[in-house]
Specification:
Elements (H helix, E strand, L loop, with lengths): L2 E2 L5 H7 L5 H14 L6 E5 L5 H8 L3 E6 L2 H13 L5 E4 L11 E6 L10 H14 E12 L9 E9 L2 E14 L4 E12 L2 E12 L3 H11 L2 E7 L16 E8 L1
Parallel strand pairs: 1-10, 2-3, 2-5, 3-4, 5-6
Antiparallel strand pairs: 6-12, 7-8, 8-9, 9-10, 11-12
Length: about 260
């Protein structure tokens, strides 16, 4: 039994989060067609991780680029793309200060990856970097975790995924040790990996930042370059955020001005 850092083993992370992403990718495509001010061909996946959305969009014919701060993640996505014979452009860059060789028609940032931006200044730098990367009329779509209650804010989920002789038992906890002033909290992720009879444990924790809906709108306006289009509480076009009673997430659509 050994303990190691989680993100240094993207293959286990990919198995643990091997969910049905088709509804999410269908939703993204629907937004491209409904809200974009231009045809969407080139798409950037920001904080792409192990590539669950990037690779699925590439298989649908989009010219995909991905960026992530983890070299291990980028190497893993490159290997998966090569195995699938998909041509993608991958970059090890920071989401607050990245530059691409060519402008994009759309950008996405999924799985609450913006939560790694812990200050308003970081969020503003990020929005401005995205605006610089998009062509006029291009879309930026992202999801954010939001609390639905202050009476019991901590959230914990556990699940198991299997692939061949590999089993990954995952536990994820969010909204631990919330700081009500900075809106920063701790997230914990643990994997128990059983592979060919060997058991390994992986654990990692990091800080994340919550942003509330009206606060997000104010930050978008302050950053400039992007305009608010619509928001949702799920990956279906009728799930508008303002109709939700107890949302756990918001999916936001912005457009380059």
């Amino acid at each position: 039994m050994t303990r190691k850092g989680l993100y240094s083993n993207p293959q286990y992370y990919e198995v643990a989060f091997d969910l049905n992403r088709k509804p999410e990718v269908d939703f993204l495509e629907g937004c491209f067609k409904r809200y974009s001010g231009r045809p969407v061909r080139r798409v950037l996946d920001i904080a792409c991780g192990t590539g669950p959305h990037l690779l699925r969009l590439a298989r649908r014919g989009y010219q995909m680029a991905g960026l992530d701060l983890s070299r291990d993640n980028i190497a893993y996505v490159r290997a998966r793309a090569n195995a699938l014979r998909l041509e993608v452009s991958l970059h090890v860059q920071d989401m607050t200060r990245f530059a691409l060789p060519a402008p994009m028609d759309a950008a996405i940032c999924m799985q609450d990856s913006q939560g790694h931006l812990l200050t308003n200044a970081d969020i503003l730098r990020h929005f401005r970097a995205v605006a610089r990367a998009l062509r006029p009329g291009g879309l930026y779509i992202f999801d954010r975790f939001i609390p639905s209650s202050w009476t019991n804010p901590a959230r914990r989920w556990s699940w198991t995924r299997r692939r061949g002789r590999l089993t990954v038992r995952a536990t994820f906890a969010a909204l631990e040790a919330v700081n009500p002033v900075t809106q920063v909290f701790r997230e914990d992720m643990s994997f128990e990996v059983v592979e060919n009879g060997t058991v390994r444990h992986y654990h990692q924790h990091h800080l994340s930042r919550m942003v509330f809906p009206q606060e997000l709108k104010a930050l978008v306006a302050l950053a400039g370059g992007l305009e608010f289009v619509e928001w949702f509480y799920g990956f279906k076009p009728h799930q508008l955020l303002h109709r939700a009673r107890h949302p756990l997430m918001m999916i936001v659509v912005l457009r380059k001005q």
